[in-house]
Target: Glycosidase
Amino acid sequence: MTGFAVDCLVFGPDDVDLSRSPLAGHLGAETYVLGAFNPALTRLPNGNLAIFVRVAEALRQPVFDGHIHAIRWADGRYVLDAWPLDQVDTSDPRKFLIRGGRWKVMALTSLSWILPVELTPDGLDVVAVHYDKAIAPQGSFQCYGVEDARVSKVGDRWLMTTCSVSPERHSTTLYSSLNGLDFVFEDIVLDHQNKDMLIFEGKIGGKFWAQTRPLGDLYFAYPPGSEWRGGPSINLATSPDAIHWKPHREPGIRPHAATLHTARMGGGTPPILTDQGWLTLWHGVEPKEIVGIYRTYWSILDPADPARVLRTGHAPLLEAAPDLTRPLEDKMYVRDVVFTTGIVDADDHFVVASGEADLACRMTHIPQDVFR
Model:
């Protein structure tokens, strides 16, 4: 589904002031914003909206002296690591693979940090960019960056999950806030590779619930003729305190065997409770070249048992919108990608935040009738 009346880009690479970046003054080399994208979304106590933008900051010239360079946080500073060009595969613009090992080992062409941006209540205009509240690496477990925030309001607290990237582990980290803007680090909450942990906006049976998406290089097959396909799926977990998480025994949303659009899938927006049940937006990926085609889909989950999927929209809710990114054509490095990361209730519609083309922040007003 496309053609929503309000569908636009609200923040992008040109809106980031790198003189106020956490990396400023550390590297002795010019950087630029590879992407300002995948924004978490929440409503603040003053009625404004806030997005939490992933700023991927990259070296302007990563290749010199026969090496490709990566940015790393180390002991309170940012440094450069150099890899000989004949040891790496640079076919993916977002990363490079280290050749010669038994395992797939990669480094990133950018380091990401999270920038809070305050918007008007409709999410369409910038009120303030809060550089003083940026979330950046602070430990060796996130030395290659903090990525893809998601924010949920549960009771009187805002909870933010992020992906923290390092050679030690590819973990999920939790931050919390009492005002929706000033977040403090809580802890590592998932120790395995998990790109999309989304905390439900409300407790069920007195417990916190979350969607997770564990990753791996091996998946077991469903029986021949099954309606499901083996591969990454959206799982569930519960917690008494949002710190200690137990995987839920029943599966969550699984990829359908009948469509290539869910050859890979993962969570998008933190589930919110509607009169229909828990509304969750998620991404499905159709294989194409290196990155694939990312689209947004939706499901309604049982309000008392989120492992029960009541309804799913099998047609895409959102697809990449080339018309929106045409003014940024000189900055494009991937295409066919919309990655939805935030949702808030706005009475007769939802305000939905997405990353567009791993480049900019897209805001869409979607009528609530769409999900009925």
